[in-house]
Specification:
By secondary structure, the protein is an alpha/beta fold. The protein has twelve helices and twelve strands. Helix 1 packs across helix 12.
Length: about 350
């Protein structure tokens, strides 16, 4: 029987609720965390009213009883005083986005659901909402790490042609070099091996991308490869050997080469150094199908790889494939997942 999946729908003014109801209607045993009026409006946009039915879920027993065609709705979700217009988020909607993330996370942490899937949010709208703790919100990855007490958390993307993990995430580009440490490189490589292995590749070969062009040209274009990334690869190899995880780590090598060879199936995954180094090729190669995965949490969390889509919200044109794939992958990873550090260390 399918695991129950908790879905925080993202910004109510964006496409998140639409893709969430489509994903739920085409899957089974999904529980949406949102204002019910937001869910109903999304169902109307996608012409699902009268086709699927909203079923209030109050506890784990209700979640277990969800039948095919049911769209579960967490009856304790934070409500909105007023539903925002499509494409026009406000402070209340920002606070609700954060509350729904927290509520959906707690559903998994308490055992009501087996995995978390998150819809697209607006970081700036959340951060400016005035909600407790919102001002420091920089993204799901960082927020979930803090909320769940996870010391090692890695953002990754799993797509049909490229699987990649990031050493740094939501940072100004000027802050990236000093945020890269040998420990963070080792952690990203370690967890990417776990992800690729869970996806069915035994003894994977993983490329470690450089930060500088041409892997720094022996220090001519920067010393991060020599002073930081190479020692990080050594640490990763030692940890993998210590924990008996067979893998081959290659690099650091130029990012363009690493990604090109990965797409050609020479490598099974690529460790990238910063956000756009991973997301540009990931979205070019598999937009709508690539899934954002947070590695190292004590729960399984996946997400769509796209944003709030304010320009198409309410038109019924939002592509739901990413949400469908995120639900599918969350379920695949949830049972006895090697990707979750359930000790919270």
């Amino acid at each position: 029987m399918d695991q129950v999946v908790a879905i925080s729908v993202g910004c109510p003014a964006g496409v998140g609720p639409e893709v969430a109801v489509v994903g739920s209607a085409t899957s089974t045993r999904c529980v949406l965390v949102a204002d019910p009026t937001v869910v109903e409006r999304a169902m109307a946009v996608r012409e699902l009213l009268g086709v699927a039915r909203i079923v209030p879920v109050h506890d784990a027993c209700d979640a277990e009883k969800l039948a095919p065609g049911d769209i579960g709705w967490w009856a304790h979700s934070t409500r909105l005083a007023e539903i925002p217009e499509f494409g026009r988020p406000n402070a209340e909607s920002g606070a609700a986005q954060l509350a729904w993330i927290n509520e959906a996370t707690d559903l998994v942490r308490s055992g009501v659901a087996g995995a978390l899937v998150t819809g697209p949010v607006s970081k700036s709208v959340i951060a400016s909402s005035g909600a407790p703790g919102a001002a420091v919100f920089r993204g799901h990855t960082e927020h979930l790490a803090e909320r769940l007490g996870a010391r090692e958390v890695i953002m990754a993307f799993a797509g049909p042609e490229l699987v990649t993990a990031l050493v740094t995430t939501h940072l100004a580009i000027a802050d990236v070099p000093k945020a890269i440490t040998k420990e963070s490189v080792a952690t990203a490589a370690y967890f990417l091996v776990q992800l690729v292995s869970a996806l069915g590749k035994s003894n994977p070969t993983i490329a470690i991308a450089s930060l500088n062009p041409h892997a720094g040209e022996d220090g001519l274009l920067g010393r991060e490869e020599i002073d930081v990334i190479e020692p990080g690869v050594v640490l990763a190899r030692e940890r993998l050997a210590r924990e008996h995880h067979p893998a081959t780590l290659i690099g650091p090598i130029g990012a363009e080469t690493a990604i090109r060879y990965a797409v050609a199936h020479k490598y099974d995954g690529v460790v990238t150094m910063f956000h756009d180094q991973a997301t540009i090729p990931s979205k070019l190669l598999g937009f709508g199908e690539a899934v954002n995965v947070t590695l190292g949490l004590p729960i399984v969390r996946t997400s769509v790889d796209h944003g709030t889509g304010y320009d198409v919200a309410g038109t019924g044109k939002a592509d739901a494939r990413g949400m469908i794939e995120a639900i599918r992958l969350a379920r695949a990873l949830a049972p006895s997942s090697p990707l979750s550090d359930r000790s919270g260390r």
